[in-house]
Amino acid sequence: MIARRLRAGFVRLGGLFNKDRLDRELAEELEAHLQMHIEDNLRSGMTPEEARRDALVKLGGVEATKEKYRDRRGVLVLENLIHDLRYALRMMRRSPGFTAVAVVTLALGVGANTAIFSLVSAVLFRPLNYHEPDRLVMVWEDESAAGFPRETPAAGNYADWKAQNQVFADMAALELRSFNLTGDSEPEKISAFGVTANFFSLLGVQAALGRGFLAEEDKPGANKVAVISHSLWQSRYGGERSIVGRNILLNNEPYTVVGVMPAGFQFEAPDTGLWVPIAFTSEQLANRGWHYLEVVARLKPGVTMAQAN
Predict the structure, then answer these.
(1) More confident position, 280 or 2
(2) What is the pTM of this model?
């Protein structure tokens, strides 16, 4: 495990010295995906302009996709870190007195925060409000050869795991999203997740108000529904129980609120404001090259972690 992590680290570090080559390879791969979608659209009867526009929409924007993969590759992070360190060292040399005071203050702050975090972690974070949390696991793709020992899974691979595995009682997928919430108050940017319909039941958590998602709602073209967090319910809607069944505007589209989660519920991101059905399309389920999901699973009774691995 340590050797694989070291290897992944060296691969990411090597990206600093092979940036141009990696960028060219990334551009070629994205262009290949784009051309594949264009050809499919042309065969379906679209004009060349419509085919290219639709392919770009499916791809999510070429430049945005490039930035996402650069971030995951770690090149931009390392570059920014090096630039920040150089700037910090120059400033420290210019003001040695200020540097000494800053270092002492930082040391005291780190010590105090460590003590506080230890207490908070023991009291708040460790007890997970899920049913049998010790049976829950995260499932990743192993792409150690490419520098990603914990690669986010592709939708097609997730679907096969769910259908064919023998060690999990159930598996659920989620995708990080965000929405502009408008219409009933000041516009607000909301962190969100698209999740499979079985996500909440897999965790063993029920909505405090209303319900979770139905299987028929987790399909393309189904009525748009959402489950909101307890904190969003309180801060934006004043804890009104009538929120269930009400429409809210997400990215200027109406979504019906079907449930409110209990206070303190969180998974992955503590600032998550709402959840919507992920609603995989047939194209997404056929794609094994687009890695963007997180997958959580529950072990079957009697199955150990070693057996699952």
Answers:
(1) 280
(2) 0.61
